[in-house]
Amino acid sequence: SMEEVTVLFPASLAILIPMFSAYRLANFNIDTQQNNSFIGLPTPALAIFIAAIPHINHEQFPMFFDIQFLTIIAVITPILLVIKMPLFSLKFSYTENIISRLNIFRILLITSTVILFFVFKFAAIPFIVILYLILSLLNNII
Question: How far apart are CA 120 and CA 92, in angstroms?
Fold first, then answer.
C-alpha cells in the first residue's frame, strides 16, 4: 500500500549511514593528512548524533520524531562524513598560541557542550554536532 511505501522508503535511506561510515573508515585508514584535523565529519560524532535521537524529549523537540525531518537527516549526515571539508580536532598543541583562533573555537565548543548537555541532556548532542560543523566552517572561512 501507499502508506507502507511512505514509511519504508525513508527508513531504507538510513542504510546510507552505515554505508558511508564504512567508506569513510576505510578511507581514513589510508589517509595520511588527518592528523591534526578531520576532513569531513568523524564517524563517532555521527554515531553519537544518531544514538542520541531516541533519548530526546519529543515534547521539547518534536522535529526529531517527524518522518520528513528524519529522512533529511538520513540523507544529509552521510554526505557530511565524506565531504572534503576540514573540521578541527580537539587536540590542543603545545606549539600553538594558547589564545589562537583555533583554541578559542575549541574552548567555545567544549563550554557550549557542557552547558547544552546540562540544559537539554541527550537532546543537546545533535545540536553540539551541528555547532561543531558551524565552528569548523567559520574556522575555514576566517
Answer: 27
Amino acid at 44: P
Amino acid identity of residue 86, one-letter, is P
Average pLDDT estimate for 23-30: 84
d(CA 76, CA 3): 24
Cell of 134: 558551524
**Cβ contacts of 33 within 8 Å, gap of 6 or more:** 39
**Tell me, what's the pLDDT at 33?**
64
pLDDT in tens, 35-61: 667 889 999 999 999 999 998 888 989
> What global pTM score does this model have?
0.81
Residues ≥6 apart with Cβ < 8 Å to 54? none
What are 39's strand-pairing partners? 86
For 54-117, the DSSP string reads GGS-TTT-GGGG-HHHHHHHHHHHHHHHHS--EEE-S---TTS-TT-HHHHHHHHHHHHHHHHH
CA distance 14 to 72: 10
